[in-house]
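Meet today's protein:

…
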Amino acid sequence: MVSIAIDGPGGAGKSTIAKALAKKLGYIYVDTGALYRAIGLYMLNSGADTKDMSAVTPKLAEIDVELKYVDGAQKVILCGQDVSSEIRKPEVSMAASDVSAIGDVRAFLLDLQRDMARKNNVIMDGRDIGTVVLPNAQIKIFLTASAEERAMRRYKELVEKGVEVEYETVLKELNERDYQDSHREIAPLKPAEDADLIDTTGNNLEQSVNMLAEYVSKRLGELEE
């Protein structure tokens, strides 16, 4: 099976581009960030301090989370409920960053992620796929863009979904999450040593997808030689 790991900071377009690529290649798309968001949402709803390991770890045994595909679209099912829209709220994004710094949470989700890669050709995106989750992935990409452009993309996405938010707030939260993700002790956000850095600043979605599709096609060709 072929695994493609796409890492990078929030708002770089990882999920959108990975989905489009997976459809183009006929691969399974695995949105690992959605799994962490689901854990963060559960902790928020249960009143647990998302930064406190002693509060979060005991609650993991209560959680049943899975990714399902309905008419080609990924759905996040948390304890039997579809939370695909709810997990995209800004406060859940910060909660996801909090819980992802807890080793027990990462261990809880690691087997699920690796099992999907063992059984399928996958494109998996997140913040530590190439470094921790799938260190032997055949293709590794670190996708990025300027903080201002990433914040604007996220802002437009939220507004389109009817969320009332200010651009400045989105930019501030994105910078805070970048810092938190790259400075955590466990699996910090950083490119794998054998990853290729791809910057999508100035690109629209179609240009970014085409850029990565061309790159992946070239790399897959090299793997087959």
